[in-house]
Amino acid sequence: MSTTPTIATTAVAVVQLPNEARAVEDPILNWLQSPELGWRFENAKDVAREYRARRHDGSMDEREVLLLPILKERLIALNPGVITDDDRADRIISRLRAERDNQEWLRWLRNEKTFKFDVAEPDQNIRLIDYDHVGTKDDLNDYLATNQFWVEGPKDRIRTDVLLFINGIPIVNVEAKTTGRDWHIDWTEGAKQCRRYGEEAPQLYYSNAFCGAVNERIFRYGVPGTKFHTWQEWRDPSPHNHIPENLRIKRSIHGLFDRVNLLDILRNFIVFEIEEGRPVKKVARYQQFAAANEIVTRAIALDREQEWRRGLVWHTQGSGKSLTILFAAKKMWHHAKLEQPTILIVIDREQLQDQMIGQLIRTNTEICRVAESKDELVKLLSDGDGFRGIIVTIMHKFSGHEKFAVPRKNVIA
């Protein structure tokens, strides 16, 4: 008598761990495309086909990170009467493709650079970005988000997770990690990856404003290659204040990548400070951004009563008050409504005066003067139409001049 062996079977539950795209990238891309943030998304294949440069043999040039068709189109639209044809646009593009210094790229992005097209023409200011109509129907900027974008560097071929372009220029790279496989994986792995990309494909970061590093729990932003403690969390979602506090990543994304906020950061809230003989890039914290903008809001309200225009910003020690003052002063200096104001930074003791002056010098603030005496302070405020720029002085130098008044409204203290 034969028997057939019985094979016992046990049901096994298969748990699929989340990958980076589903858990982290996709939510970020969805938020960016929302009507609130207003970025458009194209996948990397479409971006490659439509916008990436080609070699002479027709193959794709992954070494080029600028999206040249978009950049050319925007240059012509943003510079009417200056960039009047493709040839002039191509000359600016050639200059940008040769630029490898991030600080100089920032000057281009802030519309601070000029170009001489012909010996018979004066130097012409070149606009890369429309700062005047951000977020309105007249906004001339192109805001493009993509993911899995390949870049061929001199050392390796790398693939970014999320990459944001403004007018065809890569501005922000976000690297995503998931804790699904290993709960010890955190946002710092994304920051490490940004540092590695800066070494392996440095052209990706020539025009970079900052990078992001994120997992399912937290998003931090910082400068690629810098220490982890300098990477910050942006906790203020303004103007999208309806987002609950427990949705930390969503609050960070909406606060940082709101188009008005991002271009404000790009233009006014990034500085290079000389430390140990080399420039160190610093991006504002959300507290500094909010405080400086509130100062500017009150300063430009020239017709409001003095009491309303005054205010107090509370800082703890080491929280970056000097940079807050610097960000506010520089933004006021460039504000059209203030018409090149006189900005008084009044310190209560010499040690702080030296600290403030040092900060201004280290950030190459060219419009700064120090009032060394009471007479010099009066002269700077009253000589002719008065000095236009930043004056640093100590409180006691006003002693004896309590009734001194400056008739201009655009003197800010």
Question: What are the salient characteristics of this protein?
Answer:
single chain; disordered N terminus; 413 residues; alpha/beta; four-stranded parallel sheet; six-stranded mixed sheet
Concise summary:
Helices cover 34% and strands 17% of the residues. The protein has 413 residues and is α/β, with parallel strands linked by helices. Strands 1-4-5-6-7-8 form a 6-stranded mixed β-sheet, with helices on both faces.
Give a written overview of the molecule.
With 413 residues, the protein is α/β, with parallel strands linked by helices. It is built from 13 helices and 14 strands. The chain has helices spanning 20-33, 44-51, 68-78, 86-98, 102-109, 187-200, 248-257, 259-268, 286-299, 306-309, 321-334, 350-362, 374-382, and strands at 40-41, 114-115, 124-125, 143-152, 157-166, 169-176, 210-214, 219-222, 270-275, 278-283, 342-347, 368-370, 389-394, 411-412. The strands form four sheets. It has a six-stranded mixed β-sheet with strand order 1-4-5-6-7-8, with helices on both faces. Strands 12-13-11-14 form a four-stranded parallel β-sheet, with helices on both faces. A two-stranded antiparallel ribbon has the order 2-3. A hairpin with a 2-residue loop joins β9 (270-275) and β10. α3 (68-78) packs across α4 and α9 (286-299) crosses α11 (321-334). The longest helix has 14 residues, at 20-33. The protein is globular, with a radius of gyration of 26 Å. The N and C termini lie far apart (106 Å). The relative contact order is 0.09.
